[in-house]
Amino acid sequence: MTNPSTDDGASRRDVLTAGLGLAAFAFAPPFAAATAAPLSSHGAMTMSSGYVTTKDGVQIYYKDWGPKTAQPIVFHHGWPLSADDWDNQMMFFYAKGYRVIAHDRRGHGRSTQTDDGNEMDTYAADVAALTDHLDLKNAIHVGHSTGGGEVIHYVARAKPGRVAKAVLIGAVPPIMVKSDKNPGGLPLEVFDGFRAATAANRAQFFFDVPAGPFYGYNRPGAKVDQGVIWNWWRQGMAGGIKAHYDCIKAFSETDFTEDLKKVDVPVLVMHGDDDQIVPYADSAPLSAKLLKKGELKTYKGLPHGLCTTHPEIVNPDLLAFFKA
Protein backbone atom coordinates (compact mmCIF):
# COMPACT_ATOMS: atom_id res chain seq x y z
CA MET A 1 0.00 0.00 0.00
CA THR A 2 1.43 3.37 -0.97
CA ASN A 3 1.64 6.37 1.31
CA PRO A 4 -0.57 9.08 -0.23
CA SER A 5 1.18 11.92 1.60
CA THR A 6 4.58 10.79 0.30
CA ASP A 7 3.29 10.48 -3.25
CA ASP A 8 1.62 13.90 -3.09
CA GLY A 9 4.79 15.46 -1.74
CA ALA A 10 6.89 13.90 -4.47
CA SER A 11 4.36 15.00 -7.05
CA ARG A 12 4.41 18.58 -5.76
CA ARG A 13 8.21 18.57 -5.76
CA ASP A 14 8.24 17.28 -9.35
CA VAL A 15 5.85 20.01 -10.45
CA LEU A 16 7.88 22.68 -8.62
CA THR A 17 11.14 21.44 -10.12
CA ALA A 18 9.65 21.37 -13.60
CA GLY A 19 8.20 24.84 -13.10
CA LEU A 20 11.53 26.24 -11.98
CA GLY A 21 13.17 24.67 -14.99
CA LEU A 22 10.67 26.29 -17.33
CA ALA A 23 11.06 29.61 -15.55
CA ALA A 24 14.82 29.45 -15.88
CA PHE A 25 14.44 28.78 -19.59
CA ALA A 26 11.86 31.51 -20.08
CA PHE A 27 13.92 34.12 -18.26
CA ALA A 28 17.35 33.12 -19.54
CA PRO A 29 19.51 36.24 -19.79
CA PRO A 30 19.80 37.77 -23.25
CA PHE A 31 23.53 37.06 -23.32
CA ALA A 32 22.80 33.32 -22.92
CA ALA A 33 23.26 32.62 -26.62
CA ALA A 34 26.84 33.80 -26.35
CA THR A 35 27.46 31.87 -23.15
CA ALA A 36 25.24 28.79 -23.48
CA ALA A 37 28.26 26.55 -22.97
CA PRO A 38 30.20 26.86 -19.69
CA LEU A 39 32.45 29.90 -19.77
CA SER A 40 36.02 28.80 -20.29
CA SER A 41 38.64 29.98 -17.85
CA HIS A 42 41.05 32.61 -19.13
CA GLY A 43 43.74 31.37 -16.77
CA ALA A 44 44.82 32.02 -13.21
CA MET A 45 44.22 35.41 -11.59
CA THR A 46 42.05 36.74 -14.44
CA MET A 47 38.97 37.47 -12.32
CA SER A 48 39.60 39.79 -9.44
CA SER A 49 38.37 42.80 -7.53
CA GLY A 50 40.04 45.37 -5.35
CA TYR A 51 40.45 49.00 -4.41
CA VAL A 52 42.59 51.87 -5.62
CA THR A 53 43.29 54.72 -3.21
CA THR A 54 43.05 58.23 -4.65
CA LYS A 55 45.20 61.22 -3.73
CA ASP A 56 42.64 62.37 -1.18
CA GLY A 57 42.49 58.95 0.47
CA VAL A 58 39.23 57.71 -1.07
CA GLN A 59 39.05 54.00 -1.87
CA ILE A 60 37.53 53.23 -5.25
CA TYR A 61 36.21 49.68 -5.62
CA TYR A 62 36.64 47.93 -8.97
CA LYS A 63 36.14 44.58 -10.71
CA ASP A 64 38.75 43.40 -13.19
CA TRP A 65 37.96 40.28 -15.23
CA GLY A 66 39.64 38.62 -18.18
CA PRO A 67 43.15 38.29 -19.61
CA LYS A 68 45.40 41.17 -18.66
CA THR A 69 46.78 41.13 -22.21
CA ALA A 70 43.34 41.61 -23.80
CA GLN A 71 41.92 44.97 -24.83
CA PRO A 72 40.31 46.59 -21.77
CA ILE A 73 36.71 47.80 -21.66
CA VAL A 74 35.98 50.12 -18.74
CA PHE A 75 32.32 50.49 -17.75
CA HIS A 76 31.07 53.64 -15.95
CA HIS A 77 27.71 53.37 -14.19
CA GLY A 78 24.88 55.87 -13.80
CA TRP A 79 23.45 57.60 -10.74
CA PRO A 80 22.99 56.29 -8.01
CA LEU A 81 24.14 52.80 -8.98
CA SER A 82 27.34 50.77 -8.93
CA ALA A 83 29.53 48.52 -11.07
CA ASP A 84 26.89 45.80 -10.64
CA ASP A 85 24.64 47.63 -13.09
CA TRP A 86 26.95 46.32 -15.84
CA ASP A 87 26.61 42.61 -14.94
CA ASN A 88 25.10 41.67 -18.29
CA GLN A 89 27.69 43.51 -20.36
CA MET A 90 30.56 42.32 -18.14
CA MET A 91 29.53 38.70 -18.71
CA PHE A 92 28.94 39.18 -22.43
CA PHE A 93 32.29 40.79 -23.18
CA TYR A 94 34.20 38.59 -20.75
CA ALA A 95 32.90 35.65 -22.79
CA LYS A 96 34.19 37.38 -25.93
CA GLY A 97 37.72 37.45 -24.52
CA TYR A 98 37.96 41.10 -23.52
CA ARG A 99 39.35 42.40 -20.25
CA VAL A 100 36.33 43.98 -18.57
CA ILE A 101 36.54 46.48 -15.72
CA ALA A 102 33.85 48.33 -13.79
CA HIS A 103 34.21 50.56 -10.75
CA ASP A 104 31.95 52.10 -8.13
CA ARG A 105 32.12 55.89 -8.35
CA ARG A 106 33.21 57.61 -5.12
CA GLY A 107 30.32 57.66 -2.68
CA HIS A 108 28.55 54.88 -4.58
CA GLY A 109 28.38 51.13 -3.98
CA ARG A 110 31.42 49.73 -2.18
CA SER A 111 33.62 52.81 -2.60
CA THR A 112 34.24 55.25 0.26
CA GLN A 113 31.17 57.29 1.25
CA THR A 114 32.50 60.75 0.52
CA ASP A 115 31.62 64.18 1.87
CA ASP A 116 33.38 66.10 -0.89
CA GLY A 117 34.78 65.55 -4.38
CA ASN A 118 31.34 64.57 -5.65
CA GLU A 119 31.71 66.42 -8.94
CA MET A 120 32.97 65.69 -12.45
CA ASP A 121 36.54 66.95 -12.12
CA THR A 122 37.17 64.59 -9.21
CA TYR A 123 35.23 61.74 -10.82
CA ALA A 124 37.51 62.02 -13.85
CA ALA A 125 40.60 62.18 -11.62
CA ASP A 126 39.42 59.01 -9.85
CA VAL A 127 39.13 57.25 -13.22
CA ALA A 128 42.64 58.41 -14.08
CA ALA A 129 43.88 56.94 -10.79
CA LEU A 130 42.19 53.64 -11.64
CA THR A 131 43.61 53.48 -15.16
CA ASP A 132 47.08 54.35 -13.86
CA HIS A 133 46.79 51.70 -11.13
CA LEU A 134 45.82 49.02 -13.66
CA ASP A 135 48.07 50.53 -16.36
CA LEU A 136 45.30 50.37 -18.95
CA LYS A 137 46.32 51.13 -22.52
CA ASN A 138 44.17 51.36 -25.66
CA ALA A 139 41.04 51.02 -23.51
CA ILE A 140 37.42 51.49 -24.56
CA HIS A 141 35.40 53.50 -22.04
CA VAL A 142 31.64 52.93 -21.93
CA GLY A 143 29.40 55.18 -19.83
CA HIS A 144 25.69 55.15 -19.13
CA SER A 145 23.80 58.26 -18.02
CA THR A 146 25.98 60.07 -15.43
CA GLY A 147 28.71 57.59 -16.37
CA GLY A 148 28.62 59.00 -19.90
CA GLY A 149 29.47 62.42 -18.53
CA GLU A 150 32.27 60.88 -16.50
CA VAL A 151 33.59 59.14 -19.61
CA ILE A 152 33.73 62.21 -21.81
CA HIS A 153 35.22 64.33 -19.01
CA TYR A 154 37.95 61.72 -18.44
CA VAL A 155 38.67 60.98 -22.11
CA ALA A 156 39.12 64.70 -22.84
CA ARG A 157 41.91 64.70 -20.21
CA ALA A 158 43.37 61.21 -20.57
CA LYS A 159 47.07 60.55 -21.02
CA PRO A 160 48.12 59.68 -24.58
CA GLY A 161 47.69 55.99 -25.36
CA ARG A 162 45.17 55.32 -22.58
CA VAL A 163 41.98 55.52 -24.68
CA ALA A 164 41.10 53.95 -28.02
CA LYS A 165 37.35 54.57 -28.21
CA ALA A 166 34.41 55.68 -26.09
CA VAL A 167 30.69 55.01 -25.91
CA LEU A 168 27.96 57.23 -24.43
CA ILE A 169 24.68 55.43 -23.66
CA GLY A 170 21.65 57.43 -22.54
CA ALA A 171 24.26 59.93 -21.44
CA VAL A 172 23.84 63.35 -19.84
CA PRO A 173 26.11 65.46 -22.15
CA PRO A 174 26.18 68.10 -23.43
CA ILE A 175 24.24 69.55 -20.43
CA MET A 176 20.89 68.67 -18.89
CA VAL A 177 19.66 71.79 -17.10
CA LYS A 178 17.71 74.45 -18.96
CA SER A 179 19.32 77.85 -19.51
CA ASP A 180 19.46 80.62 -22.09
CA LYS A 181 22.22 78.67 -23.81
CA ASN A 182 20.31 75.39 -23.49
CA PRO A 183 16.61 76.22 -23.95
CA GLY A 184 15.72 72.57 -24.58
CA GLY A 185 17.00 71.42 -21.20
CA LEU A 186 15.04 70.40 -18.13
CA PRO A 187 14.12 73.14 -15.63
CA LEU A 188 16.24 73.38 -12.50
CA GLU A 189 13.09 72.59 -10.51
CA VAL A 190 13.22 69.01 -11.83
CA PHE A 191 16.59 68.46 -10.21
CA ASP A 192 15.56 70.31 -7.08
CA GLY A 193 12.81 67.70 -6.89
CA PHE A 194 15.40 64.94 -7.20
CA ARG A 195 17.35 66.45 -4.32
CA ALA A 196 14.29 66.91 -2.12
CA ALA A 197 13.12 63.32 -2.71
CA THR A 198 16.60 61.92 -2.06
CA ALA A 199 16.95 63.83 1.21
CA ALA A 200 13.40 63.19 2.46
CA ASN A 201 12.97 59.48 1.74
CA ARG A 202 15.71 58.01 -0.39
CA ALA A 203 14.45 54.44 0.04
CA GLN A 204 11.07 55.27 -1.47
CA PHE A 205 12.50 57.48 -4.21
CA PHE A 206 14.95 54.75 -5.18
CA PHE A 207 12.00 52.42 -5.65
CA ASP A 208 9.84 54.89 -7.55
CA VAL A 209 12.50 55.74 -10.16
CA PRO A 210 13.15 52.19 -11.46
CA ALA A 211 9.51 51.15 -11.00
CA GLY A 212 8.49 54.06 -13.21
CA PRO A 213 10.43 56.06 -15.80
CA PHE A 214 13.95 54.59 -15.67
CA TYR A 215 13.08 51.35 -17.46
CA GLY A 216 9.87 52.58 -19.04
CA TYR A 217 7.79 50.43 -16.71
CA ASN A 218 5.25 53.26 -16.48
CA ARG A 219 4.39 52.87 -20.16
CA PRO A 220 1.14 51.10 -21.13
CA GLY A 221 1.72 47.40 -21.74
CA ALA A 222 5.24 47.42 -20.29
CA LYS A 223 6.47 44.09 -18.96
CA VAL A 224 7.64 44.90 -15.44
CA ASP A 225 10.57 42.95 -13.98
CA GLN A 226 10.48 43.18 -10.18
CA GLY A 227 14.00 41.79 -9.89
CA VAL A 228 15.35 44.63 -12.01
CA ILE A 229 13.56 47.18 -9.84
CA TRP A 230 14.91 45.75 -6.59
CA ASN A 231 18.40 45.37 -8.02
CA TRP A 232 18.37 49.09 -8.84
CA TRP A 233 17.15 49.82 -5.31
CA ARG A 234 19.81 47.55 -3.79
CA GLN A 235 22.62 49.27 -5.66
CA GLY A 236 21.37 52.74 -4.82
CA MET A 237 20.90 52.10 -1.12
CA ALA A 238 24.44 50.72 -0.84
CA GLY A 239 25.91 54.16 -1.56
CA GLY A 240 26.12 57.29 0.57
CA ILE A 241 23.23 59.75 0.60
CA LYS A 242 25.50 62.83 0.69
CA ALA A 243 27.37 61.69 -2.43
CA HIS A 244 24.09 60.88 -4.16
CA TYR A 245 22.68 64.30 -3.26
CA ASP A 246 25.77 66.12 -4.55
CA CYS A 247 25.93 64.03 -7.71
CA ILE A 248 22.57 65.40 -8.88
CA LYS A 249 24.23 68.77 -9.45
CA ALA A 250 27.20 67.09 -11.13
CA PHE A 251 25.12 65.22 -13.69
CA SER A 252 22.59 67.98 -14.35
CA GLU A 253 24.63 71.19 -14.35
CA THR A 254 28.04 70.21 -15.71
CA ASP A 255 28.56 71.55 -19.22
CA PHE A 256 30.45 68.96 -21.30
CA THR A 257 30.46 70.97 -24.52
CA GLU A 258 34.22 71.67 -24.56
CA ASP A 259 35.00 68.07 -23.57
CA LEU A 260 32.97 66.79 -26.53
CA LYS A 261 34.76 69.15 -28.90
CA LYS A 262 38.18 68.14 -27.60
CA VAL A 263 37.89 64.34 -27.84
CA ASP A 264 39.53 63.00 -30.98
CA VAL A 265 38.90 59.24 -30.63
CA PRO A 266 35.85 57.53 -32.18
CA VAL A 267 32.77 57.86 -29.97
CA LEU A 268 29.52 55.92 -30.34
CA VAL A 269 26.47 57.76 -28.98
CA MET A 270 23.57 55.39 -28.19
CA HIS A 271 20.21 56.62 -26.93
CA GLY A 272 16.61 55.44 -26.73
CA ASP A 273 14.14 57.97 -28.08
CA ASP A 274 11.71 57.16 -25.25
CA ASP A 275 14.25 58.07 -22.56
CA GLN A 276 12.29 59.74 -19.74
CA ILE A 277 15.36 60.49 -17.59
CA VAL A 278 17.72 62.11 -20.12
CA PRO A 279 15.43 63.35 -22.91
CA TYR A 280 16.75 62.37 -26.32
CA ALA A 281 16.39 65.63 -28.26
CA ASP A 282 18.55 67.67 -25.89
CA SER A 283 21.32 65.10 -25.48
CA ALA A 284 22.47 62.46 -27.96
CA PRO A 285 22.01 64.33 -31.28
CA LEU A 286 23.71 67.42 -29.86
CA SER A 287 26.63 65.42 -28.46
CA ALA A 288 27.14 63.58 -31.74
CA LYS A 289 27.35 66.88 -33.63
CA LEU A 290 29.98 68.27 -31.24
CA LEU A 291 32.24 65.22 -31.49
CA LYS A 292 34.99 65.07 -34.10
CA LYS A 293 34.41 61.37 -34.70
CA GLY A 294 30.92 60.84 -33.35
CA GLU A 295 28.43 58.20 -34.51
CA LEU A 296 24.79 58.37 -33.39
CA LYS A 297 22.57 55.31 -32.93
CA THR A 298 18.96 56.01 -32.01
CA TYR A 299 16.74 53.24 -30.63
CA LYS A 300 13.06 53.74 -31.29
CA GLY A 301 10.89 53.25 -28.22
CA LEU A 302 13.69 52.20 -25.88
CA PRO A 303 13.97 53.60 -22.34
CA HIS A 304 16.80 55.11 -20.34
CA GLY A 305 17.80 51.74 -18.86
CA LEU A 306 18.13 50.06 -22.26
CA CYS A 307 21.33 48.21 -21.33
CA THR A 308 19.25 46.19 -18.87
CA THR A 309 15.95 45.97 -20.75
CA HIS A 310 17.39 45.31 -24.21
CA PRO A 311 20.93 43.92 -23.97
CA GLU A 312 20.22 41.67 -26.95
CA ILE A 313 20.19 44.88 -29.01
CA VAL A 314 22.80 46.93 -27.17
CA ASN A 315 25.52 44.29 -26.76
CA PRO A 316 25.90 43.34 -30.46
CA ASP A 317 26.00 47.01 -31.44
CA LEU A 318 28.72 47.62 -28.87
CA LEU A 319 30.69 44.63 -30.14
CA ALA A 320 30.45 45.82 -33.73
CA PHE A 321 31.77 49.25 -32.72
CA PHE A 322 34.60 47.73 -30.69
CA LYS A 323 35.70 45.59 -33.63
CA ALA A 324 35.38 48.32 -36.29
How many helices? 11
The class by helix and strand makeup works out as alpha/beta
Helical content (DSSP H or I, runs of 4+): 40-55%
List the secondary-structure elements in sequence, H or E. HEEEHEHEHEHHHHEHEHH
Largest β sheet strand count, sense and barrel closure: 8 strands, mixed
Uncertain spans: 1-30, 32-37
Give the name of the CATH superfamily: Alpha/Beta hydrolase fold, catalytic domain
In one word, what is the shape?
A: globular
Distance from first to last alpha carbon? 70 Å
Beta-strand share of residues: 15-25%
* CATH topology term: Rossmann fold
CATH architecture: 3-Layer(aba) Sandwich
Q: Can you count the beta strands?
A: 8
Query: What is the CATH C level class, in words?
Result: Alpha Beta
Overall pLDDT score: 90
The radius of gyration computed from the alpha-carbon positions, rounded to a whole number of angstroms, is 21 Å
Strand order of the largest sheet: 1-2-4-3-5-6-7-8
Q: Provide the domain count.
A: 1
Describe the structure.
The protein is an alpha/beta fold. It has one domain: Rossmann fold. Helix content is 43%, strand content 15%. The protein is built from eleven helices and eight strands. An eight-stranded mixed sheet has the order 1-2-4-3-5-6-7-8, sandwiched between helices. Strand 1 and strand 2 form a beta hairpin. Helix 3 crosses helix 4, helix 5 crosses helix 6 and helix 5 packs across helix 7. The longest helix has 27 residues.
